[in-house]
Amino acid sequence: MEPQLSHQVTDSVATVVIGNPAKRNAMTAEMWRALPPLLAELARDHGVRALVLTGEGATFCAGADISTLRGSAHPAQGLAVAAEEALAAFPKPTVATVRGYCVGGGVQLAAACDLRLAEEGALFGVTPARLGIVYPSSSTRRLVSLVGPASAKYLLFTAELIDTGRALRTGLVDEVLPEGELDKRVAELTRTLVSRSGLTQAAAKEFANGREDRDAHWTEQARTAEDTAEGVAAFLERRSPHFTWTPPA
């Protein structure tokens, strides 16, 4: 089977699968190129309330397909950064579901997600120092924001793989699950995400990502949306809320 990204939408959750199992789900140039338009399509779909990114089979993503880096890494790196930025900008909650190897470009993708859940035994590494490649500045800043300067330098300087215990301690992952429990926990988490206010989530994501020019926009959205009234009514009536806000076209 040709390397590809596949996706499906179930119960308001889009699941995007990195599929290149012959190379531990390494991303080819075509796969990097395909991710931004796929994300744009899913972002426009009001039936999608959250997104899960995972790898086919027993591994997440072993990075970029090294065969695409012959001659110069710059073109492939540009595609990877564009895909990473598109994922980081996705306006709804995103969850990376990590098994096996999450290395190089795999870490770029996982770090661009809002949340990262991993199965025990997963291995993480940021490996450009093994290839003499300059890690992109945007990717470096995102890594530093997750794990702090000291841990980011360790990962970048050594290119060593770390286990889930260290990844959890440094903040690279949010939860580590025993073998066989990851899918159940991701399903539980995404059910929670899609039940919450999309208005709250969208505003919080922008603010947490550092955007500072949209206070008036979100004040107006909150004023005209029905989510607050619904949330308060549901609380007082001791029922589950039914939030209806969707992003303006």
From TrEMBL:
<comment type="similarity">
    <text>Belongs to the enoyl-CoA hydratase/isomerase family.</text>
</comment>
<dbReference type="InterPro" id="IPR014748">
    <property type="entry name" value="Enoyl-CoA_hydra_C"/>
</dbReference>
<dbReference type="InterPro" id="IPR001753">
    <property type="entry name" value="Enoyl-CoA_hydra/iso"/>
</dbReference>
<protein>
    <submittedName>
        <fullName>Enoyl-CoA hydratase</fullName>
    </submittedName>
</protein>
<dbReference type="InterPro" id="IPR029045">
    <property type="entry name" value="ClpP/crotonase-like_dom_sf"/>
</dbReference>
<dbReference type="GO" id="GO:0003824">
    <property type="term" value="F:catalytic activity"/>
</dbReference>
<dbReference type="InterPro" id="IPR051683">
    <property type="entry name" value="Enoyl-CoA_Hydratase/Isomerase"/>
</dbReference>
<dbReference type="Pfam" id="PF00378">
    <property type="entry name" value="ECH_1"/>
</dbReference>
